[in-house]
TrEMBL record:
<keyword id="KW-0238">DNA-binding</keyword>
<dbReference type="Pfam" id="PF07702">
    <property type="entry name" value="UTRA"/>
</dbReference>
<dbReference type="InterPro" id="IPR011663">
    <property type="entry name" value="UTRA"/>
</dbReference>
<dbReference type="InterPro" id="IPR050679">
    <property type="entry name" value="Bact_HTH_transcr_reg"/>
</dbReference>
<keyword id="KW-0805">Transcription regulation</keyword>
<dbReference type="InterPro" id="IPR000524">
    <property type="entry name" value="Tscrpt_reg_HTH_GntR"/>
</dbReference>
<dbReference type="GO" id="GO:0003677">
    <property type="term" value="F:DNA binding"/>
</dbReference>
<dbReference type="GO" id="GO:0003700">
    <property type="term" value="F:DNA-binding transcription factor activity"/>
</dbReference>
<dbReference type="InterPro" id="IPR028978">
    <property type="entry name" value="Chorismate_lyase_/UTRA_dom_sf"/>
</dbReference>
<keyword id="KW-0804">Transcription</keyword>
<dbReference type="InterPro" id="IPR036388">
    <property type="entry name" value="WH-like_DNA-bd_sf"/>
</dbReference>
<dbReference type="InterPro" id="IPR036390">
    <property type="entry name" value="WH_DNA-bd_sf"/>
</dbReference>
<protein>
    <submittedName>
        <fullName>GntR family histidine utilization transcriptional repressor</fullName>
    </submittedName>
</protein>
<dbReference type="Pfam" id="PF00392">
    <property type="entry name" value="GntR"/>
</dbReference>
<feature type="domain" description="HTH gntR-type">
    <location>
        <begin position="19"/>
        <end position="87"/>
    </location>
</feature>
Length: 256
């Protein structure tokens, strides 16, 4: 039950200093919820207390809390307070595969190589139906590596209208996924996993034979109502598998 008298969480939000203040606050609150520091059912500190602690007015804070409530991450109850939703399993960044973490967890050194960065018109983005035909998109292709060997091929489209500064980011030393998540919340995600034969250019980049299969993770993400990015990740099929586990009785300690 929401508001069941559990011990109050500590008020130790830390802002990352990237982007507008309200976006920093939203990322900080989401971080508390996603790591389990503020588990389902916890009463979030009162708005006026948060505003004083963060040194902001009530207006941007109220905007953040409304965004989180609309995304069903929190529940706001008049005269009772604001609580973390009892069902947080389908929010935030669940379903996003952290390739850097996946590689480093095996003890290997992670690196990536940017292969392509260009601008295209939305009417050429046949794979992404959510991209308006009249808009410009940033297209990226890169290879994720473990100990210098190619492991994952990434293709990505980003709507410039959703985050205009992306047009000028070279992505030569920062991963697109990490860059985006630091600036925009992921409030909706659709992820499809399937097997396929590797395209020639992808097989060559991954060091595969032309007829070898790959596992493909294709996802689309939104920030509130704005479609933000389309991503296709190709993994060599013979050395990868996807495993998922969900326990509704335990808070999420890590999101993959």
């Amino acid at each position: 039950m929401i508001g069941n008298g559990k011990e109050q969480p500590s008020l130790d939000l830390t802002l990352d200093g990237i982007g507008p203040r309200h976006q920093q606050i939203e990322r900080a609150i989401r971080g508390k919820i996603q790591t389990g520091a503020w588990p389902p059912g916890y009463r979030i500190p009162p708005e006026e207390e948060l505003a004083v602690f963060l040194g902001v007015s009530r207006a941007p804070l109220n905007k953040v809390l409304n965004n989180l409530a609309n995304a069903k991450v929190i529940i706001r109850r008049r005269r009772h307070g604001t609580f973390v939703s009892e069902r947080t399993d389908n929010h935030a960044v669940i379903g996003i595969i952290d390739i850097r973490d996946k590689i480093e967890s095996t003890g290997k050194a992670y690196s990536f190589q940017l292969l392509k960065r260009d601008l295209i018109n939305g009417d050429n983005a046949y794979v992404w139906s959510d991209a308006p035909r009249s808009e410009r998109l940033l297209r990226l292709e890169l290879v994720h590596k473990a100990n210098g060997a190619s492991e994952v091929y990434e293709e990505r489209l980003i709507r410039i209208s959703a985050i205009p500064e992306v047009e000028f980011e070279p992505f030569d030393n920062v991963l697109p996924n990490e860059w985006l998540l630091a600036r925009l919340p992921c409030t909706r995600l659709v992820n499809t996993i399937r097997a396929a034969m590797a395209e020639r250019r992808i097989a060559q980049a991954l060091g595969l034979a032309a007829n070898e299969p790959v596992l493909i993770s294709e996802r689309k993400t939104w920030a509130h109502t704005e479609a933000v990015t389309w991503v296709k990740l190709s993994f060599p099929g013979h050395r990868n598998e996807f495993v998922g586990e969900f326990n509704p009785l335990e808070p999420l300690s890590k999101l993959g």
